[in-house]
Amino acid sequence: MEDKRLAVVTGGNRGIGFEICRQLALKGVEVILTSRNQDGGVKAVEKLNISGLTNVVFHQLDIKDPSSIACLAKFIETRFKKLDILVNNAAEVGIIIQDQEEFRTGGGFLQLVDERAEFLSHVVEELYESGEECLKTNYYATKTLTEALIPLLHVSKSPRIVNLTSMHGDLYWFHNDKVKEELQAIETLTEERIDDIIQRFLLDFKNGKLKENGWPLTLSAYKVSKATLNAYTRLLARKYKNIIVNCVHPGYVLTDMTSQTGFSTAEQGAKGPVKAALLPDDGPSGVCFYETEIAPFESPDLPLKIKHYFQGIKFLVL
Ligand SMILES: NC(=O)c1ccc[n+]([C@@H]2O[C@H](COP(=O)([O-])OP(=O)(O)OC[C@H]3O[C@@H](n4cnc5c(N)ncnc54)[C@H](OP(=O)(O)O)[C@@H]3O)[C@@H](O)[C@H]2O)c1
Question: What's one GO-annotated cellular component (predicted)?
């Protein structure tokens, strides 16, 4: 009989991450629910254990802290000897919402399009410092954690990596053709080149040159972080033929990140990531799922989709 599958989920204490843990556990996967906050993580595991899901354990993990990553890797190695599934869910959005009411009634995240950048400046604040932290978490820390756990994934018979992305990581938002081409040229793309793109973005952000150099003008750092994470996902899939590596946009989900705006619940949002985590051995690798369906990395119809949502905007209220 095959060993029980083991998954690590980052940011499992709340939102979509918590739901991914719950749904994986329901499918019989042994889950390590990780959280940077000990109390929040322990409480989340207790909640799942009390509901009958005794196959969930807690381990502290701050993905930005290399010693915390090393501690988790040691724990997995000692106790389980291998890892089957890594779900990189933890992220931050890099903006401060100044006016929650106007943000919600104005269309939530759907209004964060370049055409409205100036108008939105009193609703949403994007400081360089929070943008930099956003890139550190969503791209660099996710990459550091992944690299630390790859040796344990190599021990698994069917390893999977799932990176939570966003429709905001779609290359549609980028107006710099060179950057778009670089991120799409998967056969020649390198980690160094991705790093260079991020550093160029940060420099332009600091010097107020986002428009001049064709970067996204709203939710800028988050958009760059997810677009580069998508490229890294494809790069990993190219490099490790034995690991199925994909990214998943969970949909527009009611969580703290979205100030509880959205069209779906965390339970619905977790379905795509869970599907990607449990793909069969002949499943696709290096692709992007929009919820549960494969989608392009650059969607020409994105503005239409957003316009359509925007016109009929009716957020789900729990
Ligand atoms: N909600 C949506 O509509 C939506 C849409 C597209 C993509 N996504 C993506 O889906 C994922 C989950 O989003 P969500 O909406 O569930 O977000 P959320 O409710 O804001 O939860 C974010 C989680 O990430 C954790 N986190 C942040 N920085 C961390 C760090 N350095 N180390 C460890 N954990 C850290 C948070 O921990 P704390 O509790 O300690 O802060 C929290 O558990 C993210 O990757 C997000 O970009 C969400």
Answer: membrane
